[in-house]
């Protein structure tokens, strides 16, 4: 009885055995109807691809997972809070300051200033005013 009521209820919804209505004013109505009428090739068991041979087996997958877990455990051990100590902070700071210190290039000499002025004068001589007319 329940199965009969379910079948009766579902049959009013969608049926795979009848064609759905297509709105004739749709721009793709004709293409939709043509596609619905076209009977394609039915697949067969021969279409099922062969079982791949280059897939890792369970033992290989297990080995890879265990290697990843060992690497994660080593990383946790190497980065654990007890692996380093905050001692000799002044010595560390002095070494860092020495490494970060920029070399002393010295103040510009009179020759450096004269060379810079000569370069600027030559650049000003080559420069021209922009055209008053837009192009």
Give a brief description.
This protein has 135 residues and is mainly alpha-helical. It is built from five helices and no strands.
How would you sum up this structure, described in words?
With 135 residues, the protein is mainly alpha-helical. Helices cover 51% and strands 0% of the residues. It has 5 helices and no strands. The protein has helices at 2-11, 29-37, 58-78, 89-100, 110-126. It is flat, with a radius of gyration of 41 Å. The model has no long low-confidence stretch (mean pLDDT 83).
Relevant terms:
mainly alpha, single chain, 135 residues
Beta-strand content estimate: under 5%
Unreliable stretches (pLDDT < 50, length at least 5) are none
**Integer average pLDDT:** 83
User: How would a textbook summarize the main sheet?
Assistant: none
The number of distinct helices, counting runs of at least 4 residues, comes to 5
Order of helices and strands: HHHHH
Alpha-carbon distance between the termini?
A: 89 Å
Helical percentage? 40-55%
Radius of gyration: 41 Å
Find the structural class using helix and strand composition.
Answer: mainly alpha
Large-scale geometry:
flat
Q: Please provide the count of β strands.
A: 0
Fold blueprint:
Layout: H1 2-11, H2 29-37, H3 58-78, H4 89-100, H5 110-126
């Amino acid at each position: 009885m329940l199965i009969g009521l379910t079948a009766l209820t579902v049959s009013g919804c969608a049926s795979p055995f009848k064609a759905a209505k297509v709105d004739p004013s749709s721009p793709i109505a004709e293409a939709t109807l043509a596609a619905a009428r076209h009977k394609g090739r039915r697949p067969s068991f021969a279409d099922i691809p062969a079982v791949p041979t280059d897939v890792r087996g369970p033992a290989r997958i297990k080995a890879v997972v265990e290697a990843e877990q060992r690497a994660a455990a080593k990383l946790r051990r190497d980065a654990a809070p007890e692996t380093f100590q905050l001692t000799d902070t002044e010595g560390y700071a002095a070494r860092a300051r020495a490494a970060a210190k920029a070399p002393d290039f010295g103040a510009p000499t009179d020759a450096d200033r004269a060379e810079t002025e000569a370069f600027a004068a030559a650049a000003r001589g080559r420069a021209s005013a922009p055209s008053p007319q837009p192009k």
